[in-house]
Amino acid sequence: MTDPLLGPCSPLVPPLYQSSVYNFPDLDALDRVMNGAEPGFIYSRDGHPNAASLAAKLSQLEAARWTIVCGSGMAALSACFLGTLSAGDRVIASESLYGRTTKLLREELNRFGVKTTSVNVSDLEAVRKAFAEPARVLYAETMSNPLCRTPDLPKLAEIAHAHRAKLVVDNTFATPVLVRPLEQGADLVMESLTKMIGGHSDLSLGSVSGNDPALVASISQIVSTWGLAAHPFDCWMCERGLATLELRVRASCANAAQLADWLPRQAQVSRVIYPGREDHPDHTVARRILGQGFGNMLCFELKGGREAVNRFMRQATGIPFSPSLGHVATTISHPETTSHRYESPGEKLRQGITDGLIRMSVGVERFERIRDEIANGLSLV
């Protein structure tokens, strides 16, 4: 039907639908929408055009049959767990995860009777042994936060499915440009759209994608009932950013690879962590799993610990200290005091998270500009 306001025209840019509720001519029309006989929207907590439009494009990127958009990455991850787990179930999870994810598993889900066993997911034999007791979900990050451990996703899927468990993967560091976990055997893939996919640090969103129709039904109910839905404006902003996603990922990966070669030659740097380096413990797996590059995330450790980091930050003023990642410009974070702040000293030591460790989210600027700014920061370390 022709829009009476637009006539035969259609907008090049998708419109923003700010309405929180939609009108119906009669009860029969309402029934058709609620029963799924006709497309439509009722209340924005249950869905709206901007979320649906973004979800359709994300499904193409993820090679998924469906995608659900949520208000944040943690909301999307919570929806994954709430939609697949019940009291008495068990999760086998990577022992190297984003700090809030660890808190969700150990504390929040534990309150509801869901137990979590942590394991080195790069050690396939350890994963197999963890399934000596039944588990409903095997959970891992494509590249772990912050040290970019990169597990063998097809092998993890094989192990999980052999034990009738589902493989759930957080793909935030890699994005679907570098790897599509569903094609590697995962049952659900979660993305924090706030990060690289959004790309401009001006929205908060997450997504869950999959192929199982039973899972989309249960997770959709969770998102609505628990109030995990996304705002239309953020969805509209994120869809706009998708147009440049591949360009941004490729440019930032190229910069990160060059920095990973340059940083080890600096006297103030004691180690560099990047899956594209041959000395990374998962380099061989990363070469096979990551098809278009090794990501834009790297870590480097400064000699001198916390005070060296402070001196670096105060001198390298062109690289913002921003406890997030995926911005179009280069930013740094300090895992010991941000993402893993509430981990015990022993756990930080086990993971290799020291007070001299800097996590860098590499942007799309000219490499020389990033390099020179880092060199300026190192000059006073």
Largest sheet: 7 strands, mixed
CATH superfamily of the largest domain: Type I PLP-dependent aspartate aminotransferase-like (Major domain)
CATH topology category name of the largest domain: Aspartate Aminotransferase, domain 2
Shape: globular
Mean pLDDT: 95
Topology, please?
Blueprint lengths: L26 H8 L14 H14 L3 E5 L2 H12 L5 E5 L4 H13 L3 E5 L4 H7 L6 E5 L11 H10 L3 E5 L4 H4 L9 E4 L14 E5 L2 H13 L6 H11 L2 H18 L6 E5 L9 H7 L7 E6 L2 H11 L15 E3 L11 H7 L5 E5 L5 H12 L3
Parallel strand pairs: 2-3, 2-4, 4-5, 5-6
Antiparallel strand pairs: 1-7, 6-7, 8-9, 9-11, 10-11
Helix pairs in contact: 2-9, 3-8, 12-14
Which key terms come to mind for this protein?
single chain; 381 residues; alpha/beta; Aspartate Aminotransferase, domain 2; Aspartate Aminotransferase, domain 1; 2 domains; seven-stranded mixed β-sheet; 14 helices
Notes on the protein architecture:
The protein is 39% helix and 14% strand. It is of the alpha/beta class and 381 residues long. The chain has 2 domains: 47-242, Type I PLP-dependent aspartate aminotransferase-like (Major domain) (Aspartate Aminotransferase, domain 2, 3-Layer(aba) Sandwich), CATH 3.40.640.10; 245-378, Aspartate Aminotransferase, domain 1 (Alpha-Beta Complex). The protein has a 7-stranded mixed sheet, sandwiched between helices. It has a 4-stranded antiparallel sheet with strand order 8-9-11-10.
